[in-house]
Automatic annotation (TrEMBL):
Superkingdom of source: Eukaryota
Protein name: Retinol dehydrogenase 13 isoform X3
Family designation: Belongs to the short-chain dehydrogenases/reductases (SDR) family.
Residue stretches of biased makeup (Basic and acidic residues): 300-310
PANTHER family according to UniProt: PHOSPHATIDYLINOSITOL-GLYCAN BIOSYNTHESIS CLASS F PROTEIN-RELATED, RETINOL DEHYDROGENASE 13
Statement: the UniProt record of this protein carries the keyword Oxidoreductase: yes
Keywords: Oxidoreductase
Amino acid sequence: MNRYILPLSALGTAVGGAVLLKDFVAGGACPSKTTIPGKTVIVTGANTGIGKQTALELARRGGTIILACRDLEKCEAAAKEIRGETLNHRVNARHLDLASLKSIREFAAKISEAGCIITPVTEGETESHICPHPCLPEEERVHILINNAAVMRCPHWTTEDGFEMQLGVNYLGHFLLTNLLLDKLKASAPSRIINLSSLAHVAGHIDFEDLNWEKRKYDTKAAYCQSKLAVVLFTKELSRRLQGTGVTVNALHPGVARTELGRHTGMHSSTFSSFTLDASSPHRPGETPRTVCRHCHTSPRRETRLRSRTTDGGGSGKAGNNVKASNAGHLKQIMAHPRKGTFCSC
């Protein structure tokens, strides 16, 4: 009997460790039951993965949800699915290509100029999704902007405007979108901006002399880390500039999940990663990433202090202990863009 004790102990330890690892990388389900009726939420990249699950959960909580996606067909399908599952008909699809400055400006203009978002009835749906109360103040506002969309370790592609793809989509696109919607967010205060970053920002280094990787051999991992560090730096500086406006800005690491974000990495190909990430998939009912959910709430209790084991920061604009994310010069420099006149001044 004694000869089985050691192997069984080792097996038990391995199984227990795997269970704990699953729970750690998933971040857990959001425990809050807060509802958000009357709140308008924009979620970028919401047709799949964490963005879709976040939109689904916030729709359950009664918000008016705008899914902003590059592929409008997939976006409309996701919106229809969310409406059917939640019976919340204030879920709408809008086209937004973060790799196109023109698309970003068009999206922001529609949001700023329209009091209500109108979604036409699609085949198979029995109810109209035209807002029954056009021009109500609550629907003319944006209370929560979740900058979720991202690309990860793609080949050396460039955006429509010539920027390196990962920096262009993950940071520059959201930078422009956020600034274009700032007046709307300020008018809707208390409001919130949630920027999805990554623990990968810790390994990031921003080369301000070669942001687009035109002078160096392209490194997909380094480019991704650079883009996520840029998000954290942007969050800290924007938070400082918005003090006193009623707009709270947070960056977070949402945990690890099996989503389309990793399609260029092969990270789901091994048995171990599949076992671990399957458990942290955001597609299960009620399993909204804890960090995203908690940062969405606009109660006064969460205006100044937000903590989660998987967030980058402990409060508005904080970005952890990465010395690179605390450099005052970098914080200001990240708000300026190498191509003058491309972005709005801020």
